[in-house]
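3.2 Worked example (two chains)
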Amino acid sequence: MRRKTFFSIGFFGFPNLGDELLCLRVTRRIRKLYPLSKLYIMTRNSLVSRDYAGVQANFVEGFWPSPKYFANFPRHVKAVADSDLIVIGGGGLISDKYDRHAFLRHCIDPLIGVLLNKPYVFVGLGVTELKKRLPVSLASYMVTWAAEVYCRDSQSSDRLRRIARRDDIVLGPDLAFLSSLPTCVSGVRDYALINIREDPPVEVQRLITVCGEMLKHVSRLVFLATERADVAYFRRILTGFPEDISSKIEIAHPDNLSDTIQIVVSSKFVVACRLHVNILTVMSNKPLLAICYEDKVKQFVSQIPDGVIICNPEEVDEKCVKHVAEFGEVNHDQHVEQLCQKAQQEFDNVIFKGLYGRKYSAGTRIEAFIWLAYFMSYGVIYTILAKIKRSLLGKGPVFRKNKYD
């Protein structure tokens, strides 16, 4: 049997804990299913994907419409042409909440794939309510012609059904559950973990109260930064903390995924905003105070039977912390095992069906060509403006502050 070739596309190489975790999980599962397969990965930075996530693959650098994408455009076309299946996901890729290019940047290579008659699938998707007309139109086209679509929660699947009128969307767990955590980890240490976001923020005075209560149960606190911007945010808010509290707080920003997971696993209990910190906490059997800043967090933690307290950013207080700190031992192994089995089953089915996915009609290809003509024209103009601006002012985005350009 001819070995299969896959092209994995996601928000990879930035780095961000959740997306790099998904990159690792997806690539390892594909290689387990097809041990001799060849794997391409689209990434912003191959060094990040290799050194932070620990992934080994044929890296294709650059996201549309950045200059790096057009510099590496022949490699993108080759990756698409070589592929038997383009795998898009997981994570919240169908979104226009934080960045106008967020969803668009993941669609250009699959559109090339449509022209070359290459099937693609969406896996482990989170979907926000799209507000702009262009992403809605593109999402309708992309979801309609995908060989398979797998969403990580019911709200996401409902939103896609409304956009694309597609009834066969698969619903399953987040792709972080494609494998369990390694068992060879060190014991629990005397610290509690905090992971919060700058947007939406937890009010500083409320956070001081929460940290004070946490320090009644542990000797120190660790603020876990899951992306580079978190470090500056943590340093800024800690300047307003009393000395007796700030002196017992350290900021952790590990340079690889394994160390990040180890910090979660070794804590006594966790207070966290970000979805994948919540997931890792549950997988490592730690008491959890989940701060639900978005529906995706609430959707996940609400199905955990015990050992979890759920609150909104404006509700977190010392009572919630005390309750979580006094939980004692929790055991989610049975529930996590069920989620892992479900995620593996759904992912495997989507990949298998995707390999023998639908062929595209002439009309579908013409529509893909029209989309590509528009986006490539826009991208060329954007790249020219970016080069002009950067030659005059140094590095920076074209239209507004955007740390991903």
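3.2.1 Second chain
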Amino acid sequence: MTSLASIVEPEGQEEYPIYRYLTTNGDGTGDFDNIGDYTTPRTVSVTCRASEKIVSHFLSVHIQDAGTYDPAKYGVLAALTNGVNVGYYGADGVEKLRLTQNPIKDNAEWLHYGQGVIEAAGAGDMVQRVWIDLAGGVSDGLKLYPGESIRVTLSDNFTGLLAHDFLLHGQRLKF
């Protein structure tokens, strides 16, 4: 899958809502469909551009797989060995805050961090959507300044999934 980087941003507006996929390039371009063997870890991110500040409200997680939902599995794969980590990184590339205390290794662990929905789709597919609150009770949300990022690191084999992506919901403020 390719990125949705070609979406036109409103001209002349100082602030507006954004929905940006975490991608391999971090800037809205690159791959955002995280289906593959990432036993050599893969990182996808949203990195704040030089001309903006992002106020992050939610990170949505989308997992789709063929089969029946099982909280002890990831999609309908077996539980993962190394899992998925989510973090907030400074412009220097150093992790400032781990947003998932432990790696996510199964469907149920995503629900510890946010509100979720599990539904059937298509011919018996399982779809799990989870919205992680990045505001954490702070009314303004988690602020990203130029060079700072939200990163997801995948450290397992996800080749059996039908869909697997992460979307940042927030507000963009121009400098």
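3.3 Remarks
Helices lie at 107-113.
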